[in-house]
Amino acid sequence: MEKDEFINSMLTYLHLDDDPETLQELTAIVDGSIATIINGINQSLTYDDLKADNQFIMALRTLVTQTYYDRELANGYSFGFLSYIAPLQAKYSEVGNDETNS
């Protein structure tokens, strides 16, 4: 799913208006969530590497929703989010790390 398509799907999912302020705020949350997930699983990956992975999309949807409603993540990451991240870490831990396998 392309990032713009994902953002539009989140507008619908969260029942938000598509005014410029809301779109700007949601885009910032999505970008931050993508960075958080990539940093948590493998920094050599990009959104384009992961956008077809349904588990990544579900992790992203979960983190964006959690961050939208709790901008400070006062209670930390939800169990649901962590449940998506663990398999992604295992799946992508060696991607792009060819120098460690030589």
Architecture blueprint of SSEs:
Layout: H1 3-13, H2 20-41, H3 47-50, H4 54-69, H5 79-92
What are its keywords?
Phage gp6-like head-tail connector protein, 102 residues, mainly alpha
Tell me the domain tally.
Answer: 1
* Radius of gyration, CA atoms, in whole angstroms: 14 Å
Structural class: mainly alpha
Helix content: 55-70%
Outline the low-pLDDT stretches: none
Number of helices: 5
Work out the strand percent: under 5%
Shape: globular
Note the gap between the termini: 34 Å
What is the element string, with H for helices and E for strands? HHHHH
Tally of DSSP β-strands: 0
Mean pLDDT: 93
- How does the major sheet shape up? none
Organism: Ligilactobacillus aviarius
Protein name: Phage gp6-like head-tail connector protein
Question: Could you characterize the architecture of this molecule?
Answer:
This protein is mainly alpha-helical and 102 residues long. The protein has one domain (3-93). It is 66% helix and 0% strand. It has five helices and no strands. It has helices at 3-13, 20-41, 47-50, 54-69, 79-92. Helix 2 (20-41) crosses helix 4 and helix 4 (54-69) packs antiparallel against helix 5. The protein is globular and about 40 Å long. The termini are far apart. 19% of the residues are buried. The mean pLDDT is 93.
